[in-house]
Write a structure and sequence with these properties.
The complex is a heterodimer of chains A (232) and B (734). Chain A is α/β, with parallel strands linked by helices. In chain A, 22% of the residues lie in helices and 25% in strands. Chain A has helices at residues 14-23, 66-76, 86-93, 150-158, 218-231; strands spanning 2-7, 27-32, 43-46, 81-84, 100-102, 110-118, 134-141, 145-147, 162-166, 187-191, 197-200. The longest helix of chain B has 21 residues, at 137-157. The chains are: A alpha/beta (232), B alpha+beta (734).
Chain lengths: 232, 734
């Protein structure tokens, strides 16, 4: 039950992810992008950052890195694979998740707190949440507008693959402008049909302690810990 | 002197004849063209501080916590449990004026490398920005570009931008200011300096050298003119991805104890970094230009020596660790080449194509002449300061003024700027921008936290450079105290006009003397800094702008304060006087269109007591909401405390003074806090024990800010104030 935190040269949320995983008692290690063997790991986390500088397109080069072959292997064998922010972009570029993440509608990098509704609580990442729970979690990205063609979107909805959706805060349910980037269907995070590969733009690892302003991301990692303990 | 007898290259390099003669004396011969260029950049104001060095000696630099004062890549202060913090502020004004995106981006990259060179991991960035009129299209272009540049570099390299400040003032119209500050954390035993022992190979690490930023340090030391628009080649180009790799490589090399010395390669590139390394080590150095990794073919020695290509560092490996260093660099895909070695003879020798192309004593490059000039105050400023404001008409409608002030470019919400910066990467940011008077960062694995703030009021400094500088340090320090931290030391970014003019030199000299006085009174040493002069264009000279960055320590992170009212029913207390001053106030400018009068007087002993008192109130756990009363006075400060949580307040301001001075007048050493009834008595007693004036003004609650004065009842829905406050910068940064 060890989690590999994949370290691309431009990853910059790798240490934060490691901290959050260890905070809930998970064993986790950084794995450099040239590594070709993830033997001994039962889960992988692709952290936020700018994988290879991302001057071409976020995540566009990372899919070719040696370690991604192994991430793919873990995913196909049903182990949990999480991509956060840039990690989500890499997962879509690598074809492990459908759709794409386009430039925010405001065309700017945006860092702020958003509200997310948890749509599924039967996944290894969400079991510690309650259905419909609204979370306060930060975002920090320039390319987070989830896009997919109508057919794909329809399929995602029918299969209940949307896990997190941007929403208004509970105190002000009618508040508008809660979708920070123009994502279709307010999508903040999706999962593959098998339910083991998840990508999300917001940063649960930045909301794991009340001293940081929110601990709403903590159950995300606690869920993963529970799931991995069951595997073993 | 006639054309024939003028020494060669004098006109080309722009070196003054007097300095040329000094160079000839130091060398005992005429310099060649390359050597003259080495002197030009090393003796530029940017590298040599030749106009400011005698004045900077006035600043206190010693303190019990200081591990490293000015003179290295950054200052370092001890914070306990084996930890230390390295920090510095640096200007990138002129590059940002001609190419705002890259100018600002490389300013951020450069200050990060300074911190890394001390062996510290950067944990926070701040910036201090000054622009001209916000409605001017060129200002908007500059604001957008600078913000984009800071975001581009800081977000990608993964260091959170946790704080900053921005002012708009017409005198920055031709010469915006962009200063960046970085704070890094290190274990004391990993503290590094720019040092090498004898006979060591000196490694060039990082990005390749190209033809960008040639002579940037010298460019920074001239006034801006129309021609400068054509100086884009003097502006460096930043690559945060390579910057990240270079940073990680350097920190990992230090962690593995592979290196004995580290030096940033910043302004004046190879010339400055290598000659300073040799000079500080009491040695000489021989540089082989043929080994320098080059981005393009055919670069000549002058281009190589003056290039300010970014993302380069100088590392001196420990004996026997050369190969380990090279292997580590290979992991990051970076060049690591021994381009030089230290020698006993104290000369800086440059070899190109097998020939010695320059050889000068290292001390000669380091010890530029200094200038002490005659300063004279600009009489126009003295006249403005002397304006009598007693006859100022009282506005008929006081109600209307608060939303107008909140919507002023200098007081409105900064969210459109800071939301473009990643302010949370690293998961240490406890107080994010907009939530407190200073940013707070926790130190993982301890109960400790750091508070950081950068501040300067250009209106105060314009009207009284000396008092303005004192206010800058007092306010930055107050902001750090108001979140509950003990200020430890500061870094200063001194931005002034041309020191060769009497008024420019006067402003520089007065600014430094004011800082020195406030430093001594508040017990705060300066540990690093930067001087940026010649900040003027054809029509405007900037107000002296001492950007003061204070770092403070919270022993226990649990005891801290933020800005917003949190609990209805809490009592609101003001430390300090009810009445403010109208001179140099934001109110006077926004409502009466005047910039005149003297900035408010500053009693530094009272200031120190007020700061000690608020720290104690927070430290005892009685206070968790506190806010400094700054520009816009009491009414604006109260509104700023209502805005974060939309919680209102009702207060009574009983003063016989003119109501605009009570509501909007400014004065230092004033702090508002809220306190639960259970602790009110004790809090008030504590203030009395400190000998502080105070007023219990009212209570938190409701959804309006209601202020009762002897003659009026003023009431504003917090939501309406928010609207006024949020809109203006969104227009500039949609």
């Amino acid at each position: 039950m060890k989690v590999a935190v994949i370290q691309f040269p431009g990853s910059n949320c790798d240490q934060d992810a490691l901290w959050a995983l260890r905070l809930v008692g998970l064993e986790a290690e950084l794995v450099w992008h040239t590594e070709r063997n993830l033997e001994g790991f039962q889960a992988a986390l692709l952290p936020g950052g700018f994988s290879y500088g991302d001057y071409l397109r976020a995540g566009a080069l990372a899919k070719f890195s040696p370690v991604m072959q192994e991430v793919r292997r873990l995913a196909l064998r049903g182990y949990p694979v999480v991509g956060i922010c840039n990690g989500f972009q890499v997962l879509t570029e690598a074809g492990l998740l459908p759709g794409a993440l386009l430039a925010n509608t405001n065309l700017h990098f945006t860092c702020k707190e958003v509200f997310l509704r948890v749509e599924r609580t039967d996944l290894p990442f969400t079991r510690a949440y309650t259905p419909g729970q609204v979370l306060r979690i930060p975002i920090a990205h320039g390319e987070g507008r989830y896009y997919a063609d109508a057919e794909t979107l329809e399929r995602l909805e029918q299969n209940h693959q949307v896990v997190f959706r941007y929403t208004a805060p509970q105190e002000a349910p009618s508040q508008e402008g809660y979708n920070p980037n123009g994502s279709l269907n307010d999508i903040a995070g999706i999962v593959n049909p098998a339910g083991n590969v998840l990508g999300l733009m917001p940063h649960p690892e930045r909301a794991v302690e009340s001293v940081l302003g929110s601990a709403d991301g903590l159950p995300f990692f606690q869920s993963l810990k529970q799931a991995l303990e069951v595997v073993v | 002197m006639t054309q024939e007898t003028q020494p060669p290259f004098l006109q080309e390099t722009g070196i003054p004849l007097g300095e040329y003669q000094a160079i000839v004396r130091l060398l005992g011969r005429e310099p060649n063209r390359l050597e003259l260029y080495l002197f030009k950049v090393m003796w530029s104001e940017h590298c040599s501080y030749k106009n400011s060095r005698p004045l900077l000696r006035l600043l206190p630099k010693e303190g019990p916590a200081v591990l490293q004062g000015p003179g290295e890549n950054a200052g370092v202060v001890e914070i306990g449990e084996g930890w230390a913090v390295a920090f510095k502020i640096e200007s990138h004004n002129h590059p940002s004026a001609v190419e705002p995106v890259q100018g600002a981006a490389t300013g951020v990259g450069g200050i990060i490398r300074d911190i890394v060179a001390m062996g510290a991991r950067p944990i926070a960035l701040l910036n201090s920005l000054r622009f001209g009129r916000p409605d001017d299209p060129r200002t908007r272009y500059l604001v957008r570009g600078v913000v984009e540049g800071i975001a581009h570099y800081g977000n990608a390299i993964g260091v959170p931008t946790v704080g900053g400040e921005v002012y708009f003032h017409p005198d920055y119209q031709e010469n915006p200011l962009v200063n960046a500050m970085c704070v890094g954390l290190l274990r004391i035993e990993e503290l590094k300096k720019s040092r090498a022992s004898l006979g060591r190979p000196v490694y060039y690490v990082g990005s390749k050298t190209g033809r960008d930023g040639i002579g940037g340090a010298a460019f920074a030391s001239e006034e801006l003119s129309e021609e400068n628009e054509s100086k884009r080649p003097s502006v460096q180009v930043g690559d945060p991805f390579l910057g990240k790799l270079t940073m990680e490589l350097t920190l990992e090399a230090i962690r593995q104890d592979l290196v004995e010395g580290v030096q940033d390669m910043g302004a004046a590139g190879l010339t400055s970094s290598l000659s300073e390394l040799a000079h500080k080590s009491g040695l000489g150095l021989e540089l082989n230009l043929d080994r320098v990794p080059q981005r393009e073919a055919g670069m000549n020695p002058i281009e190589l020596m003056l290039s300010e290509s970014q993302e380069r560092m100088v590392l001196v490996p420990r004996p026997g660790k050369e190969q380990a260093l090279e292997a580590l660099a290979a992991r990051y895909g970076l060049d690591a080449v021994p381009v030089a070695h230290t020698i006993a003879e104290p000369v800086f020798r440059v070899v190109h194509a097998g020939q010695v192309v320059a050889e000068v004593p290292t001390a000669a490059l380091a010890d530029s002449p200094t200038y002490t000039r005659e300063g004279q105050e600009d009489p126009a400023i003295a006249r403005l300061r002397a304006v009598d404001l007693g006859a100022l008409p009282l506005p008929s409608d006081l109600q209307d003024i608060l939303p107008r002030l909140l919507a002023s470019p200098n007081l409105c919400s900064r969210a459109p700027i800071y939301q473009r910066y990643d302010h949370q990467v690293g998961t240490n940011t406890v107080l994010v921008p907009g939530s407190g008077d200073a940013a707070i960062l926790r130190i993982k694995g301890t109960r400790r936290g750091l508070a950081v703030k950068v501040d300067a009021n250009p209106r105060y400094s314009k009207l009284s450079p000396r008092l303005g500088a004192m206010h800058a340090l007092a306010e930055a320090s107050r902001n750090v105290s108001v979140v509950g931290a003990q200020p430890l030391a500061y870094t200063d970014g001194l931005n002034c006009g041309n020191p060769e003019t009497p008024e420019g030199y006067f402003e520089l000299s007065e600014t430094i003397q004011g800082l020195a006085e406030a430093s001594r009174a508040l017990g705060l040493p300066v540990v690093s800094g930067n001087v940026s002069l010649y900040n003027e264009g054809p029509n405007y000279r900037i107000p002296p702008t001492p950007m003061v960055g204070v770092v403070g320590l919270l022993q226990n992170l649990e005891q801290r304060a933020q800005q917003g009212f949190q609990h209805a029913g809490d009592f609101i207390v003001l430390i300090g006087a009810l009445e403010g001053h109208l001179g140099a106030s934001e109110y006077l400018w926004v409502v009466h269109g005047q910039e005149a009068g003297s900035p408010p007087p500053l009693d530094l002993a009272l200031e120190a007591r007020a700061q000690a008192a608020i720290r104690e109130l927070i430290g005892r756990g009685w206070v968790s909401t506190a806010h400094d009363v700054a520009e816009g006075g009491l009414a604006v400060a109260l509104a700023e405390m209502c805005l974060p949580y939309g919680l209102g307040a009702t207060l009574e301001l009983r003063s016989p003074a003119r109501p605009d001075a009570v509501l909007f007048g400014e004065a230092p050493s004033r702090i508002l806090f809220s306190v639960n009834q259970a602790h009110l008595q004790a809090a008030v007693k504590l203030l009395e024990n400190h000998g502080l004036p105070y007023h219990v003004l009212g209570q938190v609650g409701g959804s309006t800010l209601t202020i009762l004065t002897p003659k009026a009842r003023l009431e504003w829905p917090v939501a309406a104030l928010r609207q006024a406050w949020e809109a203006p910068l969104r227009e500039v940064l949609p």
